[in-house]
Amino acid sequence: MSLRLPHTIAAIGTFALGPVLLGAQRSPNVPVISVAGEGPETVVLISGLVGGVDGFRRLEARLLARNHRVIIINPYFLSIDSADVSFDALARRVDRVLDSLAVTGARVAGHGHGGGVAIRLAANAPERVSALYLLDMGASAVNRSPVFSRSVRLIPLIAKLPGGRTFIRKRFIRGLGESSGHDAWLDAETKRAYTEPMLAEIDRVIAMALRLALAEEPDPLPTLIRRLRIPVTVLLGAAPHTAGPTAEEMRALEPLGSLLRVRHLPGVGHFPHEEAPDEVVRHLVDPARSILLSFTEP
Fold it and tell me: What is the chain's mean pLDDT, rounded?
C-alpha cells in the first residue's frame, strides 16, 4: 500500500503538473497523484478525507489487470495549503490536473467526501466524465463533517503529549474498523498507509480541517444535480457501519431519475474499494453485467 511507483507524483511541484499548483509546497512523503497504465479507457479515482492515493491501490491493481489507465487523485492533500477548500475549489484543481493529462470521457469514482468533489467535476466539466460512481456516499451540500470539525480541534493538544501520536494512531485505526463491514483489509501495511500521511503533516491537516469547517459552496446542490447528464451509480456498504451517506444526501440524488442506480454491497462498510475491490471493479468496468447480476444474485 505504501509502494511509490515511478509514475506517482509525490512532490506535485515537479513532473508535468508544476503549473497546476504554483507556489504550493507538498510533502515528499505523501503521494498526491498517481498515473498508471496505458489502456484505452481511463478510470479516475478521487479520495475522500482518509485513505488518499494509497487507499485505492487494491482497486488500481485490478483495473490495471483489465488494461485500464488509472489516475488517482487526493484532492485534500492537493489543496492542503489552499485558502478555498470548498468542493467546488477542489473539483477545479482536479479538473486542471485532468486537463494537463488530456483526460476526457473518463469513468470517475469518488469515495466519501471525494464523491462531493466528483459530483462538482462532472457538473462543471462534463467533458471529463462519462459515468460517475459514488462509493458509500450520496450528494453532500458542503465539504465538511460537524463531528470531524469538532474533534479535530483536540488533536494538536493530544499530539504534543507523551504518547499522544501513538494514541491518535490507535484511535484512528479503531475508527477505520468501526466504519468497515469487516477488518480483513486492515493489515499492517494498510494501517501505515492510512495513518502516517496524517501524522507526518498533522499541523497542516488540522489547519485545513478548520478551513473545511467554514467552506461555502458557490452553487446550490440541486443546481449541480440538474447539470448531470451521465449515469450515476452509488455503491453502498450494506453492513452496519459508521460514516456513509445520510438519508438527505441520498434524496438529493433522486432528481436524476433513470440515470441513478443504487447498489448495496453485502458485508461491506464505508470502504467498498478496500473491502470488496473485485465487486467495485465489476460495477466500474462492466456496468451492464452488474445490473443483470443485481437481479439474479441472492
Answer: 85
